[in-house]
Amino acid sequence: MLDTALFYIFAALTLGGGVLTITRRSAVHSAIWLITSLLGVAGLYLLQRAEFLAGVQVILYVGGIMVLFLFVIMLVNLDQAAKEKRFSGQKWIALACVAAVALQALWFVSKGAGRFTLGQPSIAGENLGNSEHVSRVLFSQYLLPFELASILLLVAIIGAVVMAKKRI
Amino acid sequence: MHPITTVHYLFLSAALLLVGTIGVLTRRNIVVILMSIELILNAVNINLIAFSRQLGNVNGQVFAIFVITDAAAEAAVGLGILIALFRNKETVNADEVDILKW
Amino acid sequence: MSPSYPEAYFPILLQVGLAVLVAGGVLVTSHLLGRRVRNKTKDSPYECGITPVGDARGRFSVKFYLVAVLFILFDVEVVFLFPWAVVFRELGLFGFFSMLLYMALILAGFFFVWKKGVLDWAKRGR
Q: The pTM is what?
C-alpha cells in the first residue's frame, strides 16, 4: 500500500521533472528540474531495494554531474539563448518517435504483459546487505569492465582538458 | 490499488525515454540536449533495476553503476566540446552548427 | 531484511517531510506576516552587504569547469573504491592488485592534468 503510493509519487517526480526539463526556456531552470527528476529516480531505486545505487545516484548525478552542468551554464552565459526560439523544426521526427513507442506499448500490453505481472520481485541477497552483494558481483564477474572503466575515465579526463583548455 | 509490478516500471522507463528523445530532437540549446541524454540514460537504468529485482540478481545494478560512470564521462567530454564550440562560434544552438569545417 | 520494507525508511520520510514543512512554513509565514517595503536598494541583489559589482550572470572562467570535471572523475573513482573496500577482505591480494592497476590508470590522468597546468590557478610567469 505504502509501496504503491511511494511508487506513484516518485514516478510523478521523475516524469514531471523530465517534462519540465525539456520545456523550460532558461537552461538553469531545466537543470533544477532535471535534479528533481534524478532525485525521483533515486527514490525508485530505493523502492527496488537498490540502496547502493540510490546513494550513487544522489552523490554522482545530483552532486557531481549537475554541478558540472550548472558551471557550464554559467560559463557560456545563456542570457541570449533564453530569448531565442526554443525548439528546432524537428517535431515531425519527434512525433514519429512518440507514435512508434505508443505502438510498441500497445503491442506489449496486448501480447506479453501478462508474463510480467506475476513477477512479484524477489529480494536479491539473503542475509547480505545490498552494497556487499553488489560489491561481490562487481569484483568477481565484472572485474574487466571495472578496469576498462578506469581507461574510460582516463580518456574522459584527457578529452575534457584538451577540449576546454585554450592553449595546451 | 493494484500492487506495483515490473510492468509499471517498464512503462515509466518507456515514458522517460520518450521525454528524453523528444528533448534531444526538438531543443536547440546544446546544454538542454545533453540533459535530455541524461534523462535517456536514467530511463535505461530504471529498466535495468526493474529486471534486476524481478530476476533476483544484482547484475542489473552493477550494469547501472557502469551506465552512471559512462554518463559522467559523457557529460565531461560533451560539455568540454560545448565550451570549445562556444569559444569558436559564440553559439550554443545545435542548428547553427551545421558545417563540418570552418 | 524486514518484511515491510518502506517502514524501515520511515524516519527518513519523516525528516524529509519535516524539512519541507519547516522550509515552506518559514516562506509562507514571512510572506503572510511580513511587511513589504519596496525600493531600489531593497530590490538590488544581496552581495554580502556591499553594493553589487557587475552582473551576476557574468561569464565564469573555464578553470571552474576544469576543476568540476576533475571532481566528477575522482567522484566516480570513489564510487568504485567504496564497494571494493566493502569486500576487501574476501578479495585478497588479487583484488588489491586489480585496484592498484585501476588507481594507476586514474593517477596517470591526474598527472596529465597536473603537467598541463590545469591545477595552477594563477598564471605563473611562463
A: 0.85
